[in-house]
Specification:
The complex is a heterodimer of chains A (95) and B (648). Chain A is an alpha+beta fold. Chain A has one domain (1-91): 2-Layer Sandwich (Beta-Lactamase). Chain A is 38% helix and 31% strand. Chain A has helices at residues 2-12, 35-59; strands spanning 16-23, 28-31, 68-71, 76-81, 85-91. In chain A, strand 1 and strand 2 (28-31) form a beta hairpin. Chain A is globular. The N and C termini of chain A lie far apart (33 Å). Residues 138-144, 157-168, 542-549, 587-636 and 638-644 of chain B have low confidence and may be disordered. In chain B, strands 1-28-27-26 form a 4-stranded antiparallel beta sheet. In chain B, helix 6 (553-583) packs across helix 7 (608-628). In chain B, strand 26 (468-473) and strand 27 form a beta hairpin. Chain B has helices at 90-102, 104-126, 365-368, 496-499, 505-540, 553-583, 608-628, 632-647; strands at 149-155, 177-183, 190-196, 211-215, 224-226, 232-237, 244-249, 254-258, 267-268, 279-284, 292-297, 301-306, 315-318, 333-338, 345-350, 354-359, 369-374, 380-385, 392-397, 400-405, 414-415, 423-428, 435-440, 444-449, 459-462, 468-473, 479-484, 489-494. With 648 residues, chain B is an alpha+beta fold. In chain B, 23% of the residues lie in helices and 24% in strands. Chain B has 8 helices and 28 strands. Classes of the chains: A alpha+beta (95), B alpha+beta (648). Chain A: It comes from Scopus umbretta. Chain A: This is DLRB2 protein. Chain A: Residues 3-91 form the Roadblock/LAMTOR2 domain. Chain A: It is found in: Cytoplasm, Cytoskeleton.
């Protein structure tokens, strides 16, 4: 229930297009997009987050990735990684 | 010294099993040292020996195999589901998801991540951190940038080393010249290149006949291989239909391809009615059907074709400038030019250096040839009309590039200096009326901007070591492709200063062209007048001297010099007389009049004034000496002569 609330709140913010929660294996648990797009995002971002995390840790083993933001021409993809899950939010920044 | 050990066995015992046994060591042979042999050696004293306290290193060479990369697509299928769950089954997936959601860890994590995420989302909404300030101030001063060009792609294959720039070369072993390039009319990402060996009778057996269409995204492998029956000398995309190409072959045939149908030509013209020499120029015509093209070859014919029916040409023209239509007199065509805005006129550049302008719609064949321009000493390799001013066209041949105006047939209005190497191809820039490109046989690409500099190219780039054989500018004017003798096609991106239209450029270029045309006209009119006058004069006088059709420059110079001095002498005499009368009243020995010039003998008309003064002195001296016999002046004259000798 708390989870629901949190996700709903995030989704309600201005400019947020979609919210996706995926687990460590890349399986989407919770999503507001259609299945095929979700699967695509899940697979690709999962890999990217892993790579980013390993990069950060390679440079400094004490360090760890806390947040990943990808700003593109059309929107911004924000990834909050965790040991087991990944929270992905796609937002259209203020324009 | 032979050491022999003999082992004997009875024949009857052959084949018996061997029984090995141990035995103590026994000396079989003992060779003691022989001191007498030491005399064959020289004792070495001192002995040089070196020791180095470093680690031993050895050098090895490794040649790695060239990796071929290919772009492939990946089909992303849902995966990662645990084994017992079938991702297609909605129920199972839902159940799985619900299970995960009940997990406590999940709840905690998501709450935590949720707050983090919200923070960032709010941040984004609050302020646009990548805001672009000063957007209007992008008016760049492009004039200050020095002209430059950089290579963006080199099309080749079979490289032993791997550049940062991808290579696009002829994938065959025997290198053939890239004789013609044609850009795809729409996408600009494709380039069709015709490869053939233009050396006379140098066709080797294993030389392949293929020509390629390259996609710039994939420079390792051609997108499409065109397989004609004979190598293609020229290749052109149809500007209306981007799938169709026409090619002119080495044996004179014309072939037509449709890229949707693969690499073999859809139709090839019959050998009997085609050209008899390689087809050097093939251009599509503007027509309603979009299927008409025409071709020119060194056999002296220009043939028109409809690609739907390549079995015979629709029209033919023999390039005979005596206008008799005889094939024997015809000039071989090496380049062809057609401007879609003037559909009835076209121009042909010949091997003999003459450019023929023709009108297609003339009634009788002799009238088709409207005018000829005697342009170069050798074949006219390229012919191009200025896209902004169609009356002005560029010809490239022998060692120069010349710009002509259609109205003025006698000579070019502007021309470059004579280079050290042949010029092989040229074309105008499609965006700037004053810029054109030429390629040379020493591998250099020149960019000329004659509003900026007229004597030299404004940019000269050494593209490769072998001669460049063809050049083609993309329609946007920024990318130019040049093909070389060994089959390498290099794409260069021109700096924006050379491919953006400057202010007033059109008017300036127009003004320049008009000015040069006028100048040539005036010069020519003057020349004609002089010739007429001379002719009239020599006809009027009954001299034995024949009218000299062309005086050598030396003679002209001498004659002019003589006439000049005659005039000077007369003037001097007159003035000397006035002077001597004036000098009678003066103290003798006054310094000399006139400048002392360090030049010795007068040379050339430019030094006329200095020499005039010297001559004046001398003449003045002589006259004065003759009249007054002053001792001072002869000495002065000697001094002057001495000084002259010093100066010499």
């Amino acid at each position: 229930a708390e989870v629901e609330e949190t996700l709903k709140r995030i989704q309600a913010h201005k400019g947020v297009i979609a919210t996706i929660v995926i687990n460590a294996e890349g399986i989407p648990i919770r999503t507001t997009l259609d299945n095929s797009t979700t699967v695509q995002y899940a697979g690709l971002l999962h890999q990217l987050t892993m790579k980013a995390r390993s990069t950060v840790r390679d440079i400094d083993p004490q360090n760890d990735l806390t947040f990943l933001r990808i700003r593109s021409k059309k929107h911004e993809i924000m990834v909050a990684p965790d040991k087991e899950y990944l929270l992905i939010v796609i937002q259209n920044p203020s324009e | 010294m032979e050491i022999v050990y003999v082992y004997t066995r009875k024949r009857s015992e052959f084949g018996r099993p061997c029984s090995f046994s141990d035995r103590p060591a026994k000396v079989n042979v003992d060779i003691p040292p022989d001191p007498s042999m030491a005399s064959g050696f020289i004792l070495r004293d001192p002995v040089d020996s070196y020791v180095q306290h470093t680690s031993d290193m050895s050098e090895h060479e490794v040649n790695t195999e060239r990796v071929e990369v290919e772009s492939r697509g990946v089909n992303h299928v849902e995966g990662g589901w645990p084994k017992d769950i079938n991702p297609q089954e909605v129920e199972q997936t839902i159940r799985f998801r619900k299970k995960v959601e009940k997990d406590e860890n999940y709840i905690n994590t998501i709450t935590h991540l949720g707050t983090l995420m919200e923070h960032c989302v709010k941040q984004n909404n609050a302020i646009n951190i990548y805001e672009e300030y000063f957007e209007e101030e992008e008016m760049a001063e492009a004039e200050d940038e020095p002209p430059s060009a950089k290579t963006i792609n080199v099309i080749s294959k079979l490289t032993s080393f791997f550049n940062v720039l991808l290579s696009k070369r002829d994938p065959n072993v025997t290198k053939r010249t890239a004789t013609h390039l044609s850009w795809h009319p729409d996408t600009r990402k494709k380039l069709a290149v015709a490869y053939s060996s233009l050396e006379f009778q140098k066709n080797m057996k294993d030389m392949s006949f293929d020509s390629y269409i390259w996609d710039l995204e994939n420079p390792n492998k051609p997108e499409l291989v065109l397989k004609p029956s004979s190598p293609l000398v020229t290749l052109e995309y149809n500007p209306k239909d981007s799938h169709v190409l026409v090619g002119g072959c080495y044996n004179g045939q014309m072939a037509y391809w449709d890229t949707r149908k693969g690499g073999l030509p859809v139709e090839v013209s019959t050998v009997e009615v085609s050209h008899r020499d390689p087809v050097y120029g093939a251009i599509w015509l503007q027509s309603k059907t979009g299927t008409e093209c025409f071709s020119a070859s060194t056999d002296g014919q220009v043939l028109w074709w409809d690609v739907r029916k390549l079995s015979e040409p629709t029209e033919a023209l023999v390039l005979d400038i005596t206008r008799k239509g005889l094939l024997e007199n015809a000039l071989g065509a090496v380049s062809l030019e057609f401007e879609p805005t003037m559909p009835t006129k076209f121009m042909v550049g010949t091997e003999q250096g003459i450019v023929i302008a023709c009108n297609r719609k003339a009634k009788t064949p002799p009238e088709k040839i409207t005018s000829t321009y005697s342009s170069h000493h050798g074949p006219v390799y390229a012919l191009a009309r200025n896209p902004f001013y169609p009356k002005i066209f560029l010809t490239v041949g022998d060692w120069t590039a010349r710009i002509w105006s259609e109205e003025h047939k006698e000579s070019a209005i502007m021309w470059t200096k004579y280079h050290l190497s042949y010029l092989t191809d040229g074309c105008w820039s499609t965006v700037r009326p004053a810029v054109f490109f030429t390629t040379r046989s020493d591998g250099t690409l020149d960019v000329w901007d004659f509003l900026f500099k007229q004597k030299d190219p404004s940019l000269s780039l050494k593209v490769c070591d072998e001669p460049l054989s063809s050049l083609r500018l993309q329609d946007n004017g920024c990318v130019v492709g040049c093909g070389s003798k060994l089959g390498t096609v290099t794409l260069l991106e021109i700096s924006s200063g050379l491919c953006t239209l400057q202010r007033n450029e059109k008017t300036l270029a127009n003004a320049m062209f008009e000015r040069e045309t006028k100048r040539e006209k005036i010069l020519e009119a003057r020349h004609r007048e002089l010739r007429l006058k001379e002719r009239a004069r020599s006809e009027g006088q009954d001299t034995e001297v024949e009218e000299k059709p062309a005086e050598s420059p030396r003679e002209v110079l001498n004659r002019t010099r003589r006439e000049f001095f005659e005039v000077i002498e007369m003037e001097l005499q007159r003035r000397a007389q006035a002077e001597t009368q004036h000098l009678r009243g003066k103290v003798p020995g006054v310094g000399r009049t006139g400048n002392r010039s360090r030049d010795s003998l007068p040379r050339g008309r430019g030094r006329g004034s200095a020499s005039a003064f010297q001559v004046k002195d001398r003449a003045g001296e002589e006259v004065a000496a003759a009249q007054r016999e002053e001792s001072q002046l002869p000495k002065d004259r000697e001094e002057e002569e001495e000084e002259e000798k010093d100066a010499t």
